[in-house]
Design goal:
3 helices; 2 domains; six-stranded parallel sheet; ten-stranded mixed sheet; globular; mainly beta
């Protein structure tokens, strides 16, 4: 049964529909696919003062063919359509069919021209020429789209074109915000597009983009084409792993009249930039350290004091960025990390130190920014060198790292 959360003070009621693609028993879910939910709940959300929410569970693919949110809906910025993963069924930062997901083996996976929110979902499509339309319309429409904590993968083992995400197409002139998300393209070229005739104001914050191009083909250099008139993209704290692509602005390709991308001052835009000592990124999993490889969407930064992606992002709390892709609070340990992940493991260190004006050596360790007050180990007395109890701290003016 649909869950209804009544609004107060005139705010919209929330209608939450459970989507259980695993074939739940009758009465245990509202729909088994997002397609059936979309066709079965189309309505004028503005006059009904509603927000229509699809809460997706794991168990199987949540779509059957292209999911199109268009005809039959009336929305605005406060009466919108939302698709999110149910609590406990959201991804853990890597693609997994054991979590809530939508997959299209061929053809268009998604098209929308309504006010929309996407949260904690996984989307994957394999068609070489298809793309994911955050908004596409054949008539003037100013949709507002908000994407947070999502994974998008386009994998084309037999092709090399790959359009990626399309922020706006045809006559669309709305705006899109994407936060804390991953876009991985294998054997492709285009990262994000905004195409044909209309303006758009888009914001891209704390995302990780990775493109593995079909080297040697005409599409071997990934780029971000924006050929609309007057399109504005503002971005910050993003990491672009684009395999052999030159530095900014080549990764962004070409622009239409008066269009521009405002590059954030805390953004890594090429492998060359990201593997130097100034801005180093070696992705890892919680089990094993690894480099980015084809078909790998695990793009977390290595926990290392030399990794400049850690704590070097701009503070985007005022722009609505308060967590990372898996819900870890931002910031941690001093500042925002660059990319989709916020490191939740403190940077720790070990040193040999001695007291100033003394020859007494001891091992010091700690976590966080250095220097910190150091904890003296149990076998050191500050005056005699004899063993003492744990818990004695000394400040940086009392020791010297050797």
């Amino acid at each position: 049964m649909v869950t209804i959360i009544l609004g107060s003070g005139g705010s919209p009621d929330q209608y939450i529909y459970t989507i259980k693609p695993g074939g739940a028993p009758p009465g245990d879910c509202d729909y088994t696919t997002l397609n059936n939910w979309e066709s079965g709940t189309r309505s004028n959300l503005v006059t009904q003062n509603r927000i229509n929410i699809a809460e997706v569970y794991s168990g199987n693919n949540s779509i059957t063919g292209s999911l199109v949110i268009s005809t039959g809906w009336t929305t605005d910025t406060t009466h919108y359509v939302e698709i999110h993963a149910a609590t406990g069924h959201e991804h853990t930062g890597v693609w997994s069919t054991s979590k809530a997901y939508a997959y299209a083996a061929s053809g268009l996976i998604f098209s929308n021209n309504k006010d929309l929110r996407l949260g904690k979902m996984q989307f994957k499509w394999d068609d070489d020429g298809a793309q994911f339309f955050l908004s596409q319309g054949t008539s003037a429409w100013a949709a507002h789209v908000d994407v947070d904590r999502c994974i998008f993968i386009q994998d084309n083992p037999s092709g090399d074109y790959s359009r990626g995400l399309t922020l706006g197409s045809e006559w669309w002139s709305g705006d899109c915000t994407i936060r804390n998300s991953i876009l991985l393209i294998n054997h492709g070229k285009r990262l994000l597009t905004n195409t044909t005739l209309r303006q758009g104001n888009h914001r891209i914050y704390n995302c990780t983009f990775s493109v593995n191009p079909a080297v040697g083909s005409s599409w071997s250099t990934p780029y971000w084409p924006i050929n609309s008139t007057g399109c504005l993209v503002t971005e910050e704290n993003n990491y672009y792993n684009v395999n052999s692509v030159s530095t900014w602005p080549s990764v962004y390709g070409y622009f239409g009249p008066s269009s521009q991308v405002v590059k954030g001052t805390h953004t890594a835009t090429s492998n060359t930039e990201a593997v130097t000592a100034n801005l180093r990124n070696i992705p890892y999993s919680t089990a094993t350290f690894q480099n980015i490889t084809v078909d790998s969407e695990n793009l977390r930064p290595v926990v290392s004091g030399s990794n400049k992606l850690l704590d070097n992002g701009a503070n985007l709390t005022g722009s609505g960025v308060t967590t990372d892709i898996i819900g870890t609070a931002r910031p941690l340990f001093g500042g925002f990390d660059i990319g989709a992940f916020e490191n939740d493991i403190p940077i720790c260190w070990n040193y040999t130190a001695r007291y100033k004006n003394s020859n007494k050596l001891f091992k010091a360790s700690g976590c966080g920014n250095f220097p910190k007050s150091l904890q003296v180990p149990s076998n050191v007395d500050t005056s005699t060198g004899k063993m003492v109890d744990d818990g004695i701290f000394i400040s940086p003016d009392k020791y010297k790292i050797v």
